[in-house]
Specification:
The protein is α/β, with parallel strands linked by helices. The chain contains 18 helices and eleven strands. The strands form three sheets. Strands 2-1-7-8-9 form a five-stranded parallel β-sheet. Strands 4-3-5-6 form a four-stranded parallel β-sheet, sandwiched between helices.
Amino acid sequence: MKYVDEYREEASARKMAGLINKTVKNPWTVMEICGGQTHTLLRSGIDQMLPELVTLVHGPGCPVCVTPLEMIDRAIAIAQRPGTIFVSFGDMMRVPGSRMDLLSVKARGGDVRMVYSPLDAVKMAAEHPDREVVFFAVGFETTAPANATAVYEAKRLGLSNFSILCSHVLVPPAMEAILSSPDNRVQGFLAAGHVCTVMGYREYEPIAEKYRIPVVVTGFEPLDLLHGLQMALTALEEGRHGVENQYTRSVTRDGNLPAQKILAEVFEVCDRPWRGIGVIPKSGYRLREEYAAFDASRRFDVEGITAEEPKVCIAGAILQGLKKPGECPAFGRECTPEHPLGAPMVSSEGACSAYYQYRRS
């Protein structure tokens, strides 16, 4: 546990928090992009160790949370079809659609299965040539290379019964959408280390320059986040902007080039709707035309399915850092982990889930 415990050591954390308190002289608002980082910040009490001048807001980096309601409804429509095996990571199973979730489909007899790798779904398709196997391809640049590899492998094997329901989204366009909003309050970002492990951080540099903000790539342990906050807040106090890399043990400027190669082979950039936010231009992946045969939306003709978000749910405002979960009138009342109105309450990376577990009072 050495390489985990050393990033959770209490004395070092308190020392770093003390350094932050000495550094900060002005009010600042910093957004951590990743939902996993949100949970670490609240679970570890880091948000309560910071000076009152520092406001943390929580970004749209929870892939489950930003998957639009209509995409969940499309997944459910496919999963209900006879002769179909619908495959997903576990975090999508309880995300509510308009009327039910994927676990409800399973409870009613649908063949819905959870896997840890999209290649497991490819294996299922090879083992069940008489069944349609559909994998729910959700996530940021972190999970996209594995999903691209699954499609590439299915094509290589000639599997005509495999397809993916693609709902991949990209971080930099979401950052631009937040920063360009007239309601924006974010002055600095903590960027997600796992995304940057794949993509590097070159594409953040033009954003930092255009909006003159600091962007610090961080990991996910308490000391990672405290160090990242110290770097971002020091830059803000000194009037500096640009990209810095706290997560040097995993991230380089250029990222994982083989992973980027398979992404470019299988996917192309497209406009993508985000739950509670709307369409962000060039913010997602879709299959290239050469791989269109593996597009479940086309194969099952579900592209016409649309849905409206519950009006009481303020997930969009929370995902843009405009509000916090406690400001939602439904938080902890109509909306709980047992009966969620929106994905941020049920996702293991959702801000509403984090506040429900660690800051409900």
